[in-house]
């Protein structure tokens, strides 16, 4: 679609993390409203820095431009999440756009775990995420998206959603994923679209080759939501050259979030030698 210039929010967040004698510090924090980051937390010791991103405007509207630039210097260990679900409101014919650029230097590990996004009917939204990994760097990330306020019976029947993700390592593309979902009744019910399910999710681990057993374990920790009357959720786990990928399509945020959390904890314990530690903002 053709973008129309607007005077919406032009938010920026520039974060740099550095290792200082075994402690990961947020050494540079530059922000422009409505984006900001809370004071770092260290619930699992000084080596792993937990950061929570805030969107003070409460949601994204047509014409907004949000830009994130995150740099993990060598040997830093960082977990980044968001304070609440991201709401993408109905558009005034303008596209809202979010651009995320992440660089992880050698020995660094970033766990990028934002809370889910709710895309309202009529929203026009695009997200670009590019990750640049050095050798011996690790990336764990997920994206959970609900199309329409389904608790109110709303479906995503107008507007459009685009998500473009690239993960590179030393100039080599490891995983490139382009998704486009135009809002319509046909796409909502099509088996090649949402198949009548309002939620999709993607979990990616990139760091080292994984075994078939790890992929099987990732599948086995999926637990269907017992509150659902029908078991229409679909999941898939695929090995990548330097990691693996999980996909979800269903109707329960609790179901996909619990599964991704279980897979994340599996990765932490078996591949990162790190104990379980849920961000405290998730408990609110």
From TrEMBL:
<keyword id="KW-0996">Nickel insertion</keyword>
<comment type="similarity">
    <text>Belongs to the UreD family.</text>
</comment>
<comment type="function">
    <text>Required for maturation of urease via the functional incorporation of the urease nickel metallocenter.</text>
</comment>
<dbReference type="InterPro" id="IPR002669">
    <property type="entry name" value="UreD"/>
</dbReference>
<keyword id="KW-0143">Chaperone</keyword>
<dbReference type="Pfam" id="PF01774">
    <property type="entry name" value="UreD"/>
</dbReference>
<keyword id="KW-0963">Cytoplasm</keyword>
<comment type="subunit">
    <text>UreD, UreF and UreG form a complex that acts as a GTP-hydrolysis-dependent molecular chaperone, activating the urease apoprotein by helping to assemble the nickel containing metallocenter of UreC. The UreE protein probably delivers the nickel.</text>
</comment>
<dbReference type="GO" id="GO:0005737">
    <property type="term" value="C:cytoplasm"/>
</dbReference>
<protein>
    <recommendedName>
        <fullName>Urease accessory protein UreD</fullName>
    </recommendedName>
</protein>
<dbReference type="GO" id="GO:0016151">
    <property type="term" value="F:nickel cation binding"/>
</dbReference>
